[in-house]
Amino acid sequence: MTTVDGFLADAARLLKEAGNQDPRREARLLLAFTEGVSGETLVAYPERELSNSDRAWTAIKRRASGEPVSRIVGRRGFWKDDFLIGPDTLDPRPDTETVIEEALDLLPDRAHVERILDLGVGSGCLLLSLLREFPAAHGVGVDISDGAVDATLSNAQEFGLDDRVQAFVGNWFAGVTGRFDLIVSNPPYIKSGDIQALDREVRDHDPMRALDGGADGLECYRAIIPAAKDALKPGGFLALEVGARQASEVSSFCVREGFSRIRVRQDLAGIERCISAQWPG
């Protein structure tokens, strides 16, 4: 008989040997997932017999091999919600919440924001979180991946936002009509030559096309920024996540295209993480 307490001891030992920094907590998270119970239940009933120890050990071995917990359970907490993610979506990270913080500062009159566009929508973490904050807005999400669009629509339905969201497969602005109060994007921005040096949890488990930003990491910004002019309302804003040491160059792209009020926002680690700019009007 395999009990909760016995399993957690053995699983934490295996994860620790694999280099995990918080083995007991992650073992408990994965066991709660495979058993379909809360972490509190596991703590309250340490002598409880596992219903499926094989499934639990499979999850632990996946984690020991470097697969993120979020990928194993298929969900990731972001902003105020818990998002369904999949193999075609980027795993949302706290850095990206900087874009939401910037948008809220740029548009303090939340009731009057009508349309938001998210380019490379992925799981919908940016778009749907923004729709939570802007109650009158409708959102459009575009992604080159069918799986990402499906994830966005599934999350929208789960959060009760499906009547305010349109998401479709496309390449940046292809198929996008009308003008928007706000355009956001977390585009691929890793230099192609730097991909192999990424942490294995990112390199081996995030979709490559959501990471690779070309030779200098700036390829997507060259496509997005000039085209955004024709999709923004006069006075509308563009807010883009950027990689470390990219803020200056991305800002210069905005200046060249005629944007004003260009701002740089740091993430919690003090890294310049978001560029915003306003289209004159």
UniProtKB/TrEMBL annotation:
<dbReference type="Pfam" id="PF17827">
    <property type="entry name" value="PrmC_N"/>
</dbReference>
<feature type="domain" description="Release factor glutamine methyltransferase N-terminal">
    <location>
        <begin position="8"/>
        <end position="74"/>
    </location>
</feature>
<comment type="function">
    <text>Methylates the class 1 translation termination release factors RF1/PrfA and RF2/PrfB on the glutamine residue of the universally conserved GGQ motif.</text>
</comment>
<protein>
    <recommendedName>
        <fullName>Release factor glutamine methyltransferase</fullName>
        <ecNumber>2.1.1.297</ecNumber>
    </recommendedName>
</protein>
<dbReference type="GO" id="GO:0003676">
    <property type="term" value="F:nucleic acid binding"/>
</dbReference>
<dbReference type="InterPro" id="IPR019874">
    <property type="entry name" value="RF_methyltr_PrmC"/>
</dbReference>
<feature type="binding site">
    <location>
        <begin position="186"/>
        <end position="189"/>
    </location>
    <ligand>
        <name>substrate</name>
    </ligand>
</feature>
<dbReference type="GO" id="GO:0102559">
    <property type="term" value="F:peptide chain release factor N(5)-glutamine methyltransferase activity"/>
</dbReference>
<feature type="binding site">
    <location>
        <position position="143"/>
    </location>
    <ligand>
        <name>S-adenosyl-L-methionine</name>
    </ligand>
</feature>
<dbReference type="InterPro" id="IPR040758">
    <property type="entry name" value="PrmC_N"/>
</dbReference>
<feature type="binding site">
    <location>
        <position position="172"/>
    </location>
    <ligand>
        <name>S-adenosyl-L-methionine</name>
    </ligand>
</feature>
<keyword id="KW-0808">Transferase</keyword>
<keyword id="KW-0949">S-adenosyl-L-methionine</keyword>
<feature type="binding site">
    <location>
        <position position="186"/>
    </location>
    <ligand>
        <name>S-adenosyl-L-methionine</name>
    </ligand>
</feature>
<feature type="binding site">
    <location>
        <begin position="120"/>
        <end position="124"/>
    </location>
    <ligand>
        <name>S-adenosyl-L-methionine</name>
    </ligand>
</feature>
<feature type="domain" description="Methyltransferase small">
    <location>
        <begin position="107"/>
        <end position="193"/>
    </location>
</feature>
<dbReference type="GO" id="GO:0032259">
    <property type="term" value="P:methylation"/>
</dbReference>
<dbReference type="InterPro" id="IPR029063">
    <property type="entry name" value="SAM-dependent_MTases_sf"/>
</dbReference>
<dbReference type="InterPro" id="IPR004556">
    <property type="entry name" value="HemK-like"/>
</dbReference>
<dbReference type="InterPro" id="IPR007848">
    <property type="entry name" value="Small_mtfrase_dom"/>
</dbReference>
<dbReference type="InterPro" id="IPR050320">
    <property type="entry name" value="N5-glutamine_MTase"/>
</dbReference>
<dbReference type="InterPro" id="IPR002052">
    <property type="entry name" value="DNA_methylase_N6_adenine_CS"/>
</dbReference>
<keyword id="KW-0489">Methyltransferase</keyword>
<dbReference type="Pfam" id="PF05175">
    <property type="entry name" value="MTS"/>
</dbReference>
<comment type="similarity">
    <text>Belongs to the protein N5-glutamine methyltransferase family. PrmC subfamily.</text>
</comment>
